[in-house]
Amino acid sequence: MSEEQNVVPSTSKQSSINKRLIMFTICVSTALVTSNNGSLNLAIPILAREFQTSIATASWIITSFMVSMTLCLLHAGKISDLFGRKTTYITGLFIFIVSSCLGGFSSNIEGMIISRIFQGIGGAVIMANSIPTVTDITSKERRGANLGIIAMSLAIGSACGPIIGGVVLSFNWNWLFWFNVPICFFILIISLVAFPKTNTLITKTKFDIKGTVYLLIFLFSLLFLLTYVLPNSWDWYLIGGLISLSVLALFLFIFTENKIKNPIIRLELFKDKSYTIANLATFCNNLGQTVAMFTMIIFFQNFRGLSPFEAALLILPIPVLLVMSGPISGRLADNIGSKLLSNAGLCIMAVGLLMLTFIQENTFNIYILIALGIIGLGSGIFQAPNTKTIMTITSSENRGVVAATRSILNALGRLVAVSTTSGLLGSLIPNNNSPFPSELRYIFLGTVVICLIPVVLSWLLKAEN
Q1: CATH topology of domain 266-465
Q2: Global pTM value
Q3: Is the pLDDT score of 183 beyond 90?
Q4: Residue boundaries of the structural domains of the chain
Q5: CA angle (40, 46, 52) in 5-degree steps
Q6: d(Cα 111, Cα 113) in Å, to the nearest integer?
């Protein structure tokens, strides 16, 4: 048993200046964590050459961060309640600073992956503290507006990541890590002064250790199969063993989650078919968006000979259209319905991905930019209505768990996209001098099918009802 402390800050004593400083630190830190992976996506070809390894191996620089962050997000909120928002948030910043320093000094791929694992842990603690802290310090009248500012910070971080990466890579890849250090240190100093002391209420709870371990085994066995084994070897014993291990771990995870009082994910919520389809759509949306961005970054650098900064500029249509269309879609959802807009967004994204199936080595950039813009537009139209659907299907007492589940599925969508795509690209592009692979279109075609699965299921459910 562990003692969980629910933080109850004395907001009446918190000065207006301190609240603004806290909002500032949270906005900057969440944007920084979000932009981190986007900036490093650009560096994968460069780091593969630097460490003399394959793109599939180098992609674990991205994958390791997302795996550790996904798993730590599950418990970071509870740790925040246990030790207080201020202590936990500052600890997360400290871990992020140290791991960023070590990442910049890495001399081999193994050291960099280890530093990225710890960076993911620090990032998870920072992200898990953001919304609870804002909720704690904000009155009910201002809470919605401030949470909207946090959401905008996340979108800006996602949009700016590739640009930051492109600019920094024109100097030295090490600064992709060291860039975080002075900013986080500055935020750390402000947080020490601005964050309020907290009162605590002690209750007893139990961490879901078994569920975490089973989920970790499931993810790593599946990702190892997709990233390393299938692209490089057809050892049926190894393939069968990894599939069996992942299925067993998933079964044990589901069994454990159904038995304990404080599960990582409330599986009983998935008995609602609309809720299940909406969450599946969340996963598919993030997978499709990530496949497009990750693949085209490799395409622009390997087959067009563009610099990382130029590649970053060419994938900007996705985050820019996403940020522009999101707020409009949210307002429309109140008038014409969330499910219709969610399905429309996925269909629009599928059109953009389908356009990418026709690209060749000499395809005009304007065609690719239009396709990427359509993908960003579709994703932006999808996200707000999908969130509304998920949050309104369930009762108010389950909304915290529901929001956490959606965050996990977002992360898993990106995780599966990067690991699978990097494995396929590693087999299609074994080295930097490889010719353009015509098979590239199958990656996008498969993603089109995946994005349309929730649309078909939603239509079938409507017909059934």
Answers
A1: Growth Hormone; Chain: A; (1.20.1250)
A2: 0.72
A3: yes
A4: 1-191, 208-261, 266-465
A5: 120
A6: 5
